[in-house]
Amino acid sequence: MKIFDVAAIIPSISYSVTRLKRFAYSVWKRFIKMDPIEFPRVSQRVMEFLGSIGKSFAVYIALPHVYWAIITWAVVFTAVVTLGLCLGFGPAGVIPGSIAAAFQSAMYGGFTPAGGIFASLTSLAMLGLLAPAVTAVAAITALIPAVIVFNLVPDS
User: Fold this and answer.
1) Are residues 24 and 99 in the same domain?
2) Do residues 69 and 123 share a domain?
3) 3-class secondary structure for 117-144?
4) Do strands 89-90 and 93-94 pair parallel, antiparallel, or not at all (unpaired)?
């Protein structure tokens, strides 16, 4: 399973961190004794190092299982956020003519029980906390199919 392949990445990360530490230490030693003429050369080495990190990240993102897991996460996240925010709970309460208004009318009539899911969603929306809550739920929900796709898509 690819989910346990994280252990295989750790030596690579460790090597990169070691390279970064050595590079930072050598730059710091040179920076203390540096002539102003050397600044462009040091900045060029920093940019080359950052470019190599960016290239290795781009190579990792281009792997099929990583690419499709990211796409899956983004699609599911977008769908859940869109559905969650389009239900009809707004900052002034339930939005007239929305799905929430139809549900409230059909299920509760004139009496919405306190402490229920409907009342809690209305309260969250009126406090301005519904969008962050929907975003968190969407992120966690999108992670499940993304992990499944990550493990099912072959590398080749």
Assistant:
1) no
2) yes
3) HHHHHHHHHHHCCHHHHHHHHHHHHHHH
4) antiparallel
At residue 1, the pLDDT reads 44
Tell me which amino acid residue 34 is.
Answer: M
The total of structural domains in the chain comes to 2
Torsion of CA 114, 120, 121, 124, to 10 degrees: 130
**C-beta of residue 55 within 8 angstroms of C-beta of residue 62:** no
In this structure, the answer to whether residues 57 and 11 fall within a common structural domain is yes
Structural domain boundaries enclosing 99: 63-156
Residues 118 and 155 grouped into a single domain? yes
CA gyration radius, the chain: 25
The pLDDT value recorded for residue 78 is 96
pTM reported for the whole predicted model: 0.62
- Six-digit token string for 107: 């299920």
> Which of helix, strand or coil describes residue 89?
strand
Please provide the size of the chain in residues: 156
